[in-house]
Design goal:
The protein has seven helices and five strands, in the order ααβαβββααβαα. With about 140 residues, it is of the alpha+beta class. β2 and β3 form a beta hairpin.
Length: about 140
Amino acid sequence: MLSDDSRSFGDTARWQAALDPHAGTFSCLAAGSRIGLVAESAVNGRAAAGSQMLVWQATDEGLRVATEPFCGFDAAEVDILIAADAAALASLHASLDGDLLGSLRSLIRNGHILFFARKTRRSLEDAGYEDLLDQLGFAFMGVCR
């Protein structure tokens, strides 16, 4: 199980297996695109040293999951940073054997997820994030296109 500050996301192979069925959802991303998942406490400075970030990186072979040290918001080398509260982290972990993206969408709708775009809108568009963000429930382009 995840600790509150997510020093460990557990077995990355389980996260990889949970994301593999959604390969089509991530196929729009340019190679090198990176999404980070951290505990909300790590972003707001309450996390102890040693906090981890789960990184979903698009490659030419598909999405790859790994953990990296989270050294703070400014140092996070990701395009998008997702910060989840303790309840959301527990829910995501519990959904690894089910519908991970469905759980993520629900948590976003219910306000348990903070979303930080670390690149400009243009850069995110160029990297192929528009469809992914729309599928997750973010109104990336707004209601008036």
